[in-house]
């Protein structure tokens, strides 16, 4: 504070108030759907109030200097501001899961730079607030009350508090009662192959030409040949890559294990070991399964999940880099999409030469927030990339995915194959953030081939409904047209989203512990007094109907 005392009082006072006003305005924008332009009036109002009450204008210091208690919750608000600025929505489930599953081999150098920038800005805000408290006794008297308000109001702690209350009080089991163990009752005589293309963050919202032009055009060009599910929404604990893949392959949200287990801060050795997922089901039907992704399989438990759930080959950056003609042709996450899709094509050719059905799941990177990673093939086709416009990256992702499908189809590799094109989740904060949030947002999900009649299905759904829909599209018979919490969109059964709405589902999600126990059974099992593990609870014979 001595260094600040050397700066002329009037200039310093307005610098402090302006900095605090900007911090308040930016955090308000991050916590709401207000546009970035809303910051200006917030700052102006703040400065007018400060001018009227003469905050910090003349020293009115109490005899004793005290520690400003509001600094502690301000640090947490700084963390919230960074997470919201980086990802759009602060999802503490994602934070807990990534801390436990591991964040080694991650990409996104931009996030690291942004983190350093936010640390510096948060430090300046803390210094500015300290100056104001020590300069103005009114702020000093109100500091402890402000600290309580800031702590309680932080959105990061809301869902944590609800989940903690559920753990220590009456455990929630609403979702568990509606969970159906995924089971294949009957298989077709000649099961089809399966190709699943996860397109990172490439949500269907981009299909609005008035807002986003032709960015989504190549995916839209596939729709006349597909069953298009155009109302697939996103609920809590499904909004990041691993959560999105687990929701669509296991029919359940990814509820992190941490809050229920003593081992919450230890690395995971298994990912949702209590769930039966797409890979488990297809493996039992004799499928040969491969996952290929441009990023490392070590990030966020991706390799563990696929290895645990029936996949024979799990290939990521660390396995595929050696196949590149140019080992330097990489982005901060891993392989560019043109390289990945060439390798996917080679893998499908090999799978198709062998007897029996196969399944290929791939995950690309081109439209990854915040700016995307367009491949050189796209730059050659569309021209230079400015490094900021996410629509360029979306267009690249869509173009390369369509080219892959057409290439495989041209070689006859999709003749007996169900093709699924899906976004893993809604995009996080990108250059088109305000435009995306101008309407209700939906995920991409379409299925083509295997005799499906092209059409649009508008039923309210979530990514959890993907698993049973996919199984029925492949010709499998499943219990009650359901798997996990999902309902087949090819059936007439109502989905949970259709019957209850997203807000109600999210509310139950925050209170649920029984389903969380099911997903992670075996990770931290309870033991009898003789040291033998207890038998995990079995699923009810029939689910509770919506």
Structure, described:
The structure is a single chain. With 546 residues, the protein is of the alpha/beta class. The chain has 2 domains: 2-168, no CATH class; 193-255 and 273-511, Alkaline Phosphatase, subunit A, CATH 3.40.720. Helices cover 45% and strands 10% of the residues. The protein contains 23 helices and 14 strands. Helix 16 runs parallel beside helix 18 (390-410). It starts with a helix and ends in a 27-residue tail after the last helix.
Features:
546 residues; alpha/beta; Alkaline Phosphatase, subunit A; 8-stranded mixed beta sheet; two-stranded antiparallel sheet; 14 strands; 45% helix; 10% strand; globular
- Tell me the domain tally: 2
- How is the CATH topology of the largest domain named? Alkaline Phosphatase, subunit A
Low-pLDDT segments: 1-8, 164-169, 259-265, 522-541
Specify the CATH architecture of the largest domain.
3-Layer(aba) Sandwich
Structural class label: alpha/beta
Measure the end-to-end span: 61 Å
**CATH level 1 name of the largest domain:** Alpha Beta
> Biggest β-sheet: count, sense, barrel?
8 strands, mixed
Fourth-level CATH superfamily of the largest domain:
Alkaline Phosphatase, subunit A
Number of strands: 14
* Number of contiguous helices: 23
- Strand order, biggest sheet? 6-5-7-2-8-9-3-10
Rg, alpha carbons: 26 Å
Beta fraction: 5-15%
Helical amount: 40-55%
* Averaged pLDDT: 86
Give the CA-based shape: globular
